[in-house]
Amino acid sequence: MTDQMEMREMAGDSGNALLSGLRRVLMAGVGAVALTQEQMEEFVGKLVERGEIADGDARKLISDVVDRRKRTLQDSTKRAEEELDKRIEGLLVRMNIPSKGEIDALSDKIADLSRKVDQLRLPER
After folding, report:
1. Mean pLDDT across the stretch 114-120?
2. How does pLDDT run across 9-68, given as a tens digit for each residue?
3. Where are the strands (E) in 14-57, listed by range?
4. What is the largest CA-CA distance in the chain?
5. C-alpha of 31 from chain center
6. Burial degree of 87 (CB within 10 A; 0-12, 13-18, 19+)
7. Contact in structure between 66 and 37 (CB atoms under 8 Å)
8. What's the whole-number average pLDDT of the chain?
9. Using an 8 Å Cβ cutoff, are 20 and 11 in contact?
10. Packing angle, helices 14-49 and 55-94, rounded to 10
């Protein structure tokens, strides 16, 4: 309960609290990945020292794991962004605030109407 109150105090309102919480989760994930990578490199280094794995194979193994983690992190980030977009869109709907798409559609309609009005004002030649 105190964590939630802390987040609200730090962020201001519920929309910012969501962003603040998401930021904390993502930063914690990045820290965990860095720590785990160091531990993996240390473990593989010990295997190389003991002669249980060749240096080239060790580098390839580390590279493969890092690449896989990058892809996983990118996928997770994409899913988190999509979820955040859905939640923000829901918040905008509840607050009766038009989305960017709705505003763009209205702007297009206004531009079309303005062109038609201008055409009606001009005398035909």
Report:
1. 92
2. 443 444 456 556 656 666 666 666 665 777 878 887 888 888 877 888 878 888 888 888
3. none
4. 92
5. 17
6. middle
7. yes
8. 77
9. yes
10. 170
